[in-house]
Amino acid sequence: MKVTDVSVVLNQITHQYGKREVFKGINGTVNSGETAVVSGSNGSGKSTLMKIIAGLMRAKSGTADVLIDGKLCDNRERRRYIGYLSPDLTLYRELTAAENLH
Fold first, then answer.
1. Which end of the chain, N or C, is less packed with Cβ atoms under 10 Å?
2. 83 Cβ contact list (under 8 Å, min separation 6)
3. What is the pLDDT of residues 52-83, one digit of tens each?
4. How many CA atoms lie within 13 A of 99 on its CB side?
5. From CA 23, how far away is CA 30, in angstroms rounded?
6. What is the DSSP track for 44-102?
């Protein structure tokens, strides 16, 4: 399937760990051909937000939608189009590059 348009739409995303609110009310849209930057100090929720967008975790409230050619994707389907690479990634020397990616 050839994809021509991808959009990520954030609507009132809020997340917390226990009683500690990491972020609240994040809104925004990023469309094909656009670039977005997520910045902040350590512990500000950058990785958490990216995991929510990638469908790897749920927000406490709000929605993070991914639309492919106008069609809403569920968390499983969006993983075909969105990847998340943690800064804590470890590569294993005994594996090939392809094996590490797999």
1. N
2. 54
3. 998 889 999 999 999 999 999 988 888 887 77
4. 6
5. 19
6. SSHHHHHHHHHTSS--SEEEEEEEETTEEEPHHHHTTT-----TT----TTS-HHHHH-
